[in-house]
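Listing S7. Sequence submitted for prediction.
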Amino acid sequence: MVTRVESAAVTRRTLLDAAAELLDLGGPEAVTLREVGARAGVTRGAPYRHFADKDSLLTAIAAESWERIGDQVHALRTDPALSASEKLRGALHALIGVGRAQPHLYQMLFRSRSRRTPARTWNPCAPAGDPAAYVRAAGRFQDEFLAIVTALVGERNARHYGALLLTSAHGIAGMELSGHLDTDKWRTTADELVDTLVRMVADAGETT
């Protein structure tokens, strides 16, 4: 027999999956609680019992996405068969890959802090999708990534090169998404740029 808690968990999962599909199809503007409920095949009031509003729902999607990316980077970091450079290359591709496969989601993951509710305003009694979960998930990804960078350049320089790598990867993804990374003009690709970044950082690690 399915308990009320289990039933609620299934409904929440269905709502999140429906919202993610709408986000991929039309961006944040396409995601409304009414459309999500209709796509999920639940009652009209069901989405409002799980999420306070649209922003709460999108925050939950973003948090889950950061968790998935963090899981990928963790798996790379702990894979004994990979070299330090291969782990870094894989982590950068994991991030850029989201931009390629789910551009609307990628842009939402990096929207400015001013457009997100600060974590300190989170009410633990509110419906799921709290900003604190987003902050924790994004922070976990950053910690896993930083650990990979540390293995290449050492602890003293890890944050400097980590920031350089993430901003560079974000720039590469943005250029590719916007169509401005024209291979005819620049005579390179996003993958080649990632390889160059990894080589540069690996070389820097060897000289420190």
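Caption to Listing S7: primary sequence and predicted structure tokens for the chain studied. The radius of gyration is 19 Å. Confidence is low (pLDDT under 50) at residues 114-126.
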